[in-house]
Specification:
heterodimer; A: 334 residues; alpha/beta; Rossmann fold; 7-stranded mixed β-sheet; 12 helices; B: 333 residues; 5-stranded mixed β-sheet; 14 helices; globular
């Protein structure tokens, strides 16, 4: 565990930087591939918010579950879904993690227990409660991390699920990625109470606010939070104050905020913050950085190559996975 | 009825309860959750006594949060449980529509086959009890529009008792619509009654002159209409759809190819309805077998009013079914 102010372990710092860089470079490639029309539909970029997924997921165990939003490339990559499978998904290829049926917004993976990729704001939150309920009923030592944005805090599904999770003492870590905009509507224009942790605390659960641009702060808070959820058997709310550097989606002309505001936030770019900290501590030099960049470039290139070489699902299989094949026998395991 | 050694007399409500009790006994992963399913015993008394027998972990009262608890059912199903979610009535299910449509029905396909949702959602449906516009919907036809879910409408004691267990063993989400007017219907069941088929429609009365096609709450009045028609020399066949999605088209076609005439009785509104879908299928697949246009008896296209005479005027009635059947049979009667 690494808390701000404490000595940072070099290898751990490099690992965190590597993870954030993977997301950053992967998504920068996505932008180019979108322009090249290899990726279509909605594409929501996480650039600027990388410290949140990296810091929180660092605190999770491999068999914990993640429920995320339509801005979930980072969560998928950090949880261990192959970059190739994610890219192939966006290419609409059958080798994609959802066989090309989900696209950018609906990444799923059974091995890493990634339950989407939900395109409806707030729509994944009730699911997280249910996954945690199953763990509780089956006596499993697992938790569910549920990511959503500040926009979701205005949805009824958020409030219903917070209440249910607290009432039933469900092991859910609610992770509010507060990037200050519900699509294009600023926080103070969509929330009467803009202190989201205060709001969440009314559901009788611990709620903390964290600097979501500082991956070390996020990781430290997440580790405490995950321990509290796992050992305390009750939910907890983390507000991660962050910012999206890019537009909401590729369709967004970004008219609702000033360039100055974006530039100010970029001064707190999570990659820059960690890089500066590590350099100041003498834990990182140009050669390290170049090595990380090279590693990531290789991974992204391989992912694109995998997606390019992918195949299209035969149209005859269009209606597969709507209704299942014959029912499992009574008493069968899921 | 079979020739089982022992027969019990019970109501539709009790048959539903026996189905739930049986499922809870058979499989530890099964639990029931919903509004007032615990100490209250269910808004319609269906779960009465189950809390005492199975305890509060498996018989769970929920807050009035349809979206959260239906969504929690989906999540619990994903997590390996076999939840029975009771939504008090179809009217309130609209508050959970996002979860039912965007998650339960969609996850398997959207995940490329990775995640099944073995969830059962039960709810009361229908009008006829002077509960006015917001508590009298028959929206099962709406739900039957959605790919990815199975939609069941038990109209008999056998189905009330026997549809739940196979529904829980379906790897995909199943919605069960229990009609409020049937709860007190009494009849006999073999003591060892169990699971029933949840794939096919059933011919409840065999006949040669006209097919009366219905389901759920309108089955009794349709059978009554068939009896009246018999007195007039018209031999009506009554087909109970049972499964509203996926529709058992072959059974419908088999009946209509025999009778050459069809009347569809559907408590839902006419426009864009299940009755419209069945009409279309008959037109597509049985056009040359039909001797008369398909007729429909549906709910009047109004929000259901409170006053008894207005409500009854808005709902399908046996005499309307008789009149429609006479019309399609025409000079052949």
């Amino acid at each position: 565990m690494t808390a701000p102010g404490k000595p940072l372990d070099r290898d751990h710092g490099l690992h965190l930087l590597h993870e954030m860089l993977r997301i950053r470079r992967f998504e920068e490639a996505c932008v180019e591939l979108y322009s090249a029309t290899k990726i279509r539909g909605f594409l929501h970029l996480y650039i600027g918010e990388e410290a949140v997924a990296v810091g929180v997921c660092e605190a999770l165990e491999p068999d914990d579950a993640v429920v995320a939003t339509y801005r979930e490339h980072g969560h998928a990559l950090v949880r261990g879904v192959g970059a190739g499978a994610v890219m192939a998904e966006m290419f609409g290829k059958v080798e994609g993690c959802s066989r090309g049926r989900g696209g950018s917004m609906h990444l799923f993976d059974a091995a890493t227990r990634l339950y989407g990729g939900n395109g409806i704001v707030g729509g994944g939150i009730p699911l997280a409660g249910g996954l945690a309920l199953a763990d509780k009923l089956l006596g499993r030592d697992r938790i569910t991390a549920c990511f959503f944005g500040d926009g979701a805090v205005a949805e009824g599904e958020f409030h219903e699920s917070m209440n249910l999770a607290a009432l039933w003492e469900l092991p859910v870590l609610f992770c509010c990625e507060n990037n200050r905009y519900a699509m294009g509507t600023a926080l103070e224009r969509h929330q009467a109470q803009t202190n989201l942790a205060l709001k969440a605390s009314s559901y009788a659960m611990p709620a903390w606010s964290v600097d979501g641009m500082d991956v070390l702060a996020v990781e430290a808070a997440a580790r405490r939070a995950v321990t509290a959820v796992r050992e305390g058997g009750q939910p907890l709310f983390l507000e991660l104050q962050t910012y999206r550097f890019r537009a909401h989606s590729m369709y967004d002309p970004d008219l609702y905020r000033t360039k100055d505001e974006v530039e100010r936030w970029k001064e707190r770019d999570p990659l820059v913050l960690l890089t500066d900290r590590m350099r100041a501590d003498g834990l990182l030099d140009d050669a390290d950085l170049q090595r990380l960049e090279d590693d990531v470039a290789t991974e992204v290139a391989a992912a694109i190559d995998f997606a390019e070489r992918g195949t299209l699902e035969p149209v005859e299989d269009l209606t597969r996975f709507v209704h299942s094949d014959p029912p499992t026998p009574p008493g069968g395991t899921p | 009825m079979t020739s089982a050694p022992e027969v019990v007399t019970l109501t539709y409500r009790e048959a539903l309860r026996e189905g739930i009790r049986d499922a809870l006994r058979r499989d530890e992963r099964v639990f029931l959750m919903g509004e007032d399913v615990g100490p209250y015993g269910g808004a319609f008394g269906i779960s009465r006594g189950l809390l005492e027998e199975f305890g509060p972990v498996r018989i769970r009262d929920t807050p009035l949060s349809e979206s959260a608890f239906v969504g929690a059912g989906i999540g619990a199903a994903l997590g390996g449980m076999r939840p029975i979610v009771e939504v008090m009535t179809v009217n309130f299910s609209l508050l959970a529509l996002d979860q039912i449509l965007n998650n339960a029905a969609t996850l398997l396909h959207m995940s490329g086959g990775l995640f099944n949702v073995p969830l059962v959602v039960r709810m009361t449906t229908g009008g006829g009890r002077q509960l006015a516009a917001q508590h009298s919907h028959s929206l099962e036809g709406w739900y039957a529009h959605i790919p990815g879910i199975r939609v069941l409408a038990p109209a008999t004691l056998d189905d009330a008792r026997g549809m739940l267990w196979p529904a829980l063993n379906d790897p995909d989400p199943v919605l069960i619509f229990e009609h409020g007017s049937l709860f007190n219907a009494k009849g006999e069941l073999p003591a060892d009654a169990g699971a029933v088929d949840i794939v096919h429609a059933a011919v409840r009365r065999s006949g040669a002159d006209v097919s009366l096609i219905t389901y759920g709450g309108t089955l009794p009045l349709t059978l009554e209409a068939a009896e009246q028609l018999a007195g007039e020399g018209i031999d009506a066949e009554v087909v109970d759809l049972r499964v509203l999605r996926p529709l058992d088209t072959p059974t419908l076609l088999e009946s209509v190819s025999k009778t050459h005439r069809a009347v569809i009785v559907d408590e839902g509104w006419r426009s864009g309805s299940l009755s419209a879908e069945i009409s279309a299928r008959l037109a597509e697949h049985a056009f040359y077998d039909l001797d008369a246009p398909v007729a429909r008896v549906c709910r009047a296209e109004v929000p259901l009013p409170y006053a008894a005479h207005l409500e009854q005027a808005a709902l399908p009635q046996a005499d309307e079914v008789v009149a429609a059947a006479r019309e399609v049979v025409g000079g052949h009667a």
